[in-house]
Specification:
globular; about 475 residues; Phenylalanyl-tRNA Synthetase, Chain B, domain 3; Rossmann fold; alpha+beta; five-stranded antiparallel beta sheet
Length: about 475
Amino acid sequence: MPPPPSSHFLQKIQAYILSESLIRRGDHVLVAVSGGPDSVALLSALHSLQEALGIAGLTALHFNHRLRGRDSEDDQSFVEGLTRRLTVPLLCSQGDVKAHQRQHRISLEMAARDCRHGFFREALAQLQAQCLAVGHTANDQAEEILLRLLRGTGPSGMAGMLPSTPEGIIRPLMGATRQEILEYLGASGLPYRDDATNFEPFCQRNLLRLEVFPGLESAFHRGIVATLSRHARLARDEEDYWREHQRGLWPILCREESSSRVALSFPSLASLHRAEQKRLLRCALSKIRGNLQHIYAVHLESIVQWLPNSFSGQFMDLPERVRVSREGDRLLFTQGPPGAPECESPFEETLIPGPGIYELRSFRLEIASEDRESQPMLPKTHEDVTSVRLDADRVRWPLTLRNWSPGDRFRPSGMKGSKKLQDFFVDCKIPRERRKQIPLLCDAEKICWIVGLRLDERVRVQDSTQRVLVVTQHLKISASAEE
């Protein structure tokens, strides 16, 4: 039986829930339960606190990823037994995560998250619940902060995971450490399942958990997790301030707003501090896209650098068919329909400020960042798809897509010296009239890829490569060709 609500751990969880207003009296709360220590402690704590918090209904959710063979089935059986003992209703589901990974060409971890969260959204709607509790802890928050910092997040990213989200996700355990949770489970006599993959440094988060944080605690102090979690809370306070400040600026700058078109006063925007400019750019982009997925700090920085030298008629294309353009004294943000071309000529110089999907007249270019160990599923090279992998740390953003100019040189993969692009075309027997039709993917320093033909040696994936850029060219076949 779980300990009474008077235990120190439960008091701490209850205080955190109340301080962050995570649960209201009368709420129906769903609880994601994998069978691991965090989710078992979460379900037990909410079950013990149900009366004290006024929770009207408590339902456990379990998603079987079917990735660990018999272990996955045993996890589900364990959760079924746990919920029976606690007399908590349980809703289970499962999905083909590997098929989802192949279909969307994403990492296995991301595919698992997509499938799991899809089930969670369906359950929230089906059961008409007010929120879904997940088992993220203070350790998870500290790991997330360090990961974001190492990946180059902006100030808003340093707020880390939020205690609650607009979608109804709540994190009641984020005020407790992993050690406190294990002590609670031990004192309660509550069993849990261990996933052996959590103890293998095969991904960045596990590497942080198993090697980096123990090293930091040894070299600095054992309160590293608490320090980083406190930093996240301070950053969240800053974000709250900026949100209110931005809310006051928006009516002053906004000249037009719809679901697919936002216009800002260019002179007013240009007069603001760079930090204010970036916040308002983020706001404009989120209004026409609904979210900021695939919009990164590099995109905002590229726009801010472009603003002082822009003139009417100029534009910049961003991922997901978003265009930023200057029209007189207005800065216009638009989003085109799926498949719409984004520039007049397929190979005129086009800025590529970060990973994403770029629609051009005769092909679509997809750029995705992956950890090397994720081993992304690349399409095979054939007449309508070509893919390459680049060492992400050797690429200097932003990228541009342009055509050949006389005097261009590159270093063909497998070679030590450089070569004139004209000589390369001659060696490949490419007719002169076709050379201007071959796009070049360049970074700030060099040609990275003669698209469809040859990679530059300086961005080739090597044994030391940690992160890769997967660049895929999809040629668009005309209707007559398909017939």
